[in-house]
Amino acid sequence: IGYNLKATDLQAALGLSQLERLSEFCESRRKNWLRMKAGLYDIPGITLPEPAPNSDPSWFGFTLAVQDSAPYSRRDLQLYLESKRISTRLLFSGNLTRHPAYEHVEYRVSGSLKNSDKVANDMLWIGIYPGVTDEMIDYVVSEIWSFVKGAQS
Q1: CATH number for domain 9-152, candidates 3.40.50.300, 3.30.565.10, 3.40.47.10, 3.90.1150.10
Q2: Phi, psi angle pair for 47, to nearest 5°
Q3: Cα separation of 84 and 106, whole Å?
Q4: What span, in angstroms and rounded, lies between the C-alpha atoms of 40 and 135?
Q5: For residue 3, which phi and psi values (nearest 5 degrees)?
Q6: Where are the domains of the chain?
């Protein structure tokens, strides 16, 4: 289950050359994440990500978890953002037992996996890679607010 990805010598050389820029990439991701978090700080109906205590993550993306009490679904939000040319991704996580790769695999489940189902059903992800500009983040934030305000009225 999964991919058997092996780097070629060329890919390895490119990866090594990028290590010199690692600090710059990480700082840019943190800055982008903080800008998105500040813009969506008190948005109703969505739970925003929090870093683990005593951590300093280099965020790969920004997750949005639609709350059960929200008057819209994750799918509604996703379709709206896509209509505004804002790319989103579902998380490859959640309840892995529901993924097609596990269809013919024997496994044991302990409990209901309700939290895993929640992640699979109610969360989406927006990229905050180093090439994202402040203007792009502001646009994403503005459109999320527009959607939420429209859904509440």
Answers
A1: 3.90.1150.10
A2: -95, 130
A3: 42
A4: 15
A5: -115, 145
A6: 9-152
CA dist 151 and 11 (Å) reads: 46
Residue whose tokens read 């990480």:
26
- What size, in residues, is the chain? 153
Classified as helix, coil or strand, 82 is: helix
What pLDDT digit, counting tens, does each position of 53-88 carry? 999 999 999 999 999 999 999 999 999 999 999 999
Task: Tell me the pLDDT tens digit for each residue of 82-111.
Answer: 999 999 998 877 788 888 888 888 989 888
Is pTM, for the whole model, over 0.90? Answer: no
User: 58-90: b or e for each residue (b if 16 or more CB lie within 10 Å)?
Assistant: ebebbbbbbeeebebebeebbebbeeeebebee
